[in-house]
Amino acid sequence: HTGGRLDSALTFYRRTIQLDPQYYQASFQAGLILQRWRAYNQALANYSRVLQLNPQFPRIHTYIGFCQEQL
Questions:
Q1: pLDDT digits (tens, 9 = 90+) for 9-23
Q2: From CA 5, how far away is CA 34, in angstroms rounded?
Q3: Cα atoms found within 13 Å of the Cα of residue 53, Cβ hemisphere only
Q4: pLDDT value at position 70?
Q5: What is the DSSP string of 8-65?
Q6: Do 57 and 51 meet the contact criterion of CB atoms below 8 Å apart?
Q7: Quick one: 57 exposed, middle or buried, by C-beta within 10 A (0-12, 13-18, 19+)?
Q8: What are the backbone angles phi and psi of residue 37, rounded to the nearest 5°?
Q9: What is the largest CA-CA distance in the chain?
């Protein structure tokens, strides 16, 4: 999802999270979009959800740390 499609991708991921809150991959993808938009608080909330659902998710601590540094 690139360019103008990020809005629709984020809508898709948010809807997916509503339908299946345990699907941590949607939270991660939403976090990536929000981080790209510099919405660090919102990205951090999504990354924190990923960490809670899957503590072994690769590099999630790196993404969380990056967002925390930007705040």
A1: 999 999 999 999 999
A2: 13
A3: 16
A4: 97
A5: HHHHHHHHHHHH-TT-HHHHHHHHHHHHHTT-HHHHHHHHHHHHHH-TT-TTHHHHHH
A6: yes
A7: middle
A8: -85, 5
A9: 32
DSSP conformation class of 68: H
Q: Which residues contact 33 (CB under 8 A, 6 or more apart)?
A: 1, 6, 9, 10, 13
Look at the block and give the residue holding tokens 């991921």: 13
Residue 2 has pLDDT above 60, yes or no: no
pTM over 0.85: yes
Question: Cβ contacts of residue 44 below 8 Å, gap of 6+?
Answer: 31, 64, 67, 68, 71
Q: Which two tokens stand for residue 25?
A: 């991959």
